[in-house]
Amino acid sequence: MAPIKNVAVAGANGILGPAVISALLSSSFNVTLLTRSGSTHPPKPHLPTIPVDYTSTSSLTAALRGQDALISLIGGTSLLAPQRTMIAACLAAGVRRFIASEFGSDTCHPRARAMPCYGEKVAVQELLEEAVAVPQQEQEQSFSYTLLMTGPFFDWGIATANLLMDTKGHQVTLYDGGDVQFSVSSLATVGRAVAGVLAHPNETRNRAVYVQDCTVSLRGLLEIARQAAPETEWVGSEVQTEEVERRAWEGMKAWKEGGEKDGEGMMGWFYGFLTRVIFAEGYGSRFGEVDNALLGISQMTAEEVGEYVGGFVKMADEKNGK
Question: Please, what is the angle between helix 80-93 and helix 119-133, to 10°?
């Protein structure tokens, strides 16, 4: 496959946008941003930006002419419709690589992909498999895709989302005892992995690619926090993910029967399923073989993990006057 140079990015105003754009520019890719028509986000003056209609194949096709790759960073719960249009536009415009909006749990794992929260990601995967199964005249220039599995975002899950620990409240929820190991990647690592995928188009063609900074457990994170701030009382509260999943099924049923299909109403049960997949045993949250070596990304040592997590703990305490 010919080298990839021109890269379009959709959804760059989200969580991953800055890290991915920085990594692409550092790797000397030519980056063009696609922004939703009518978006109120301020433009990035140093990068070409094209307003598009994500419901229009013709709009996206025109924007993608001359691009070698399209990276979808769109987030939220409605991933299928815009990415269906993106895939159709890639095929029409001759885009050779599409990186789907994955960047999380291993949705290729049978138990994970069966969860309702991943339904749209699985549907996108099926569309991609259909697209590459269609005979294409020139294999060298044909359409291809990559699914990038990263696990939860390490830094964001600690410092922003309270997904992995609550640094302000000094507590960690120990799901299923907190001993299950799971893969994590920082936002910067995800950005470098995206650039690495595009730098190795043949090796990453039409498959899932796995990357991680390290594997951690919730109990391990709690112990690091206690060591980093011995003068502070850190609490671990135990919750069973089986119960979280049970409530998620009930919440989804009530949401569907309620008739109000708003995104806010589905967040509770949606994240309940995510919690089960990330923190329970048997859902593929700890990756087996990873592609770090291929992508040129080293993994953290235990000492580096301790310093990294401890840094967030100390920074939060300083911010809160501890």
Answer: 20
